[in-house]
Design goal:
Distance between the termini: 44 Å
Strand order of the largest sheet: 1-3-2
Oligomer: single chain
Shape: elongated
Low-confidence stretches: none
Order of helices and strands: EHHEEHH
Number of helices: 4
Largest sheet: 3 strands, antiparallel
Structural class: alpha+beta
C-alpha cells in the first residue's frame, strides 16, 4: 500500500467537492479510498485522476457513468499506443 495519502475530509475541502461524488468514484473503482485506524484517506497517486474527473464533471458536465466510459477509453487508447510502439520497434528490427 502506498503510504503517501491525504485525509479524505481534507481532500473534500481542498477540491471543494461533494462526498457523494468521491464516494461514487470510489464505488466505480476510479479512485481508491483506504481506511486506516478509523480514518479515511485518498492515496496521492489517485489525486491526478481525481482532479481530471472533477474537471470533466464541472467543466464538461459529465456524470459518473460518462467518466467511467472516458477512463476506460483512455486506458484502451494508451494500451493500443503501447502495442503500436512495440510493433513498430519489432518491425524496425526486422527491416535492418
Amino acid at each position: 500500500m502506498n503510504e503517501k495519502r491525504i485525509l479524505y475530509s481534507e481532500c473534500l475541502e481542498i477540491y471543494n467537492i461533494e462526498k457523494t461524488f468521491v464516494d461514487s468514484l470510489n464505488e466505480s473503482g476510479l479512485i481508491n479510498i483506504v481506511m486506516d485506524q478509523e480514518l479515511e484517506y485518498v492515496e496521492c497517486d489517485d489525486l491526478e485522476y481525481l482532479e481530471q474527473y472533477i474537471r470533466w464533471n464541472r467543466d464538461l458536465d459529465i456524470n459518473i457513468a460518462g467518466i467511467e466510459a472516458l477512463h476506460h477509453m483512455l486506458q484502451r487508447i494508451n494500451s493500443l499506443q503501447e502495442e503500436l510502439s512495440q510493433l513498430r520497434n519489432e518491425l524496425a528490427f526486422y527491416k535492418r
